[in-house]
Design brief:
single chain, 253 residues, Alpha/beta knot, Trp Operon Repressor, Chain A, 2 domains, 9 helices, 37% helix, 16% strand, elongated
Length: 253
């Protein structure tokens, strides 16, 4: 997979994603599973000050990212619309989640356009295949948001994690949080590992983990569990368990 970032601070990405010993992205790049190119939007300006922002028409606070550098940078990438997507990062976008991470990981090429200042000239959005926000808060620039997306997408690429089950069992798959996990020692300061995990009975362990995922999600993210219930992602036994945990009213049924 190839990921391109468009930013006025491309150097942010180089340091964070180059270390092979600390970064999943760095290891993926070393293995040849990911190509990451960081483009400076200033390289697509035509004035001596390399200006990428300007005052908004009609007045107002702050500066807007200009349309020309973004368009020309995208033009230079020669994208195939059938195998690539352009993502513009903006607080106005759809909130990023694991479903979108999986969708983006299936692409051959992904372009992340990072904003700054007060946002983009509205015409920039006409080049977007999707607009993404990582949450209902404001960052100084889109670089941190892009880094979150790159990391989330990268770990879903085949052979990046080594153990393919790692990505399957993680939180947010099937709209559930990951089940509680334990390691040695079995007892510590009066805190014991659940007996079922020591039983060696893999069928019982799998059942316990699924139930604990549902219980944990009900406690910490009932919105996710309600969505899983409404979307038919649970079997009959699990649906009954969810009704006991949340009640019909909270399920929105």
């Amino acid at each position: 997979m190839r990921i391109d970032t468009l930013s006025v601070f491309p150097q942010v990405f180089s340091g964070s994603f180059s270390a092979v010993d600390t970064s999943i992205v760095g290891r993926a790049r070393q293995k040849g599973l990911l190509e990451l190119y960081n483009h400076d939007l200033r390289d697509f300006t035509h004035d001596r000050h390399r200006t990428t922002d300007d005052e908004p028409y009609g007045g107002g606070q702050g500066l807007l990212m200009k349309v020309e550098p973004v368009f020309e940078a995208l033009d230079s990438l020669n994208l195939n619309p059938e195998t690539s997507e352009v993502v513009v990062l903006s607080p106005a976008g759809r909130r990023f989640d694991q479903t979108q991470a999986r969708e983006l990981s299936r692409l051959q090429r992904l372009v992340l356009v990072c904003g700054h200042y007060e946002g983009f000239d509205e015409r920039v959005y006409t080049r977007a295949d999707r607009i993404i926000s990582i949450g209902d808060f404001i960052l100084t620039g889109g670089e941190l948001a892009a880094m979150c997306i790159i990391d989330a997408v990268c770990r879903l690429l085949p052979d990046v994690l080594g153990d393919e089950r790692s990505a399957i069992d993680e939180s947010f798959n099937d709209n559930l949080l990951e089940y509680p996990q334990y390691t040695r020692p079995a007892d510590y300061r009066g805190l014991s590992v659940p007996a079922v995990l020591l039983s060696g009975n893999h069928a019982l362990i799998a059942k316990w983990r699924r139930e604990q995922s549902i219980i944990k999600t009900a406690t910490k993210r009932p919105d996710l569990l309600a969505a899983a219930y409404r979307n038919g992602m649970l079997d009959a036994y699990e649906q009954d368990l969810v009704r006991q945990l949340l009640g019909e009213a909270d399920l929105g049924c």
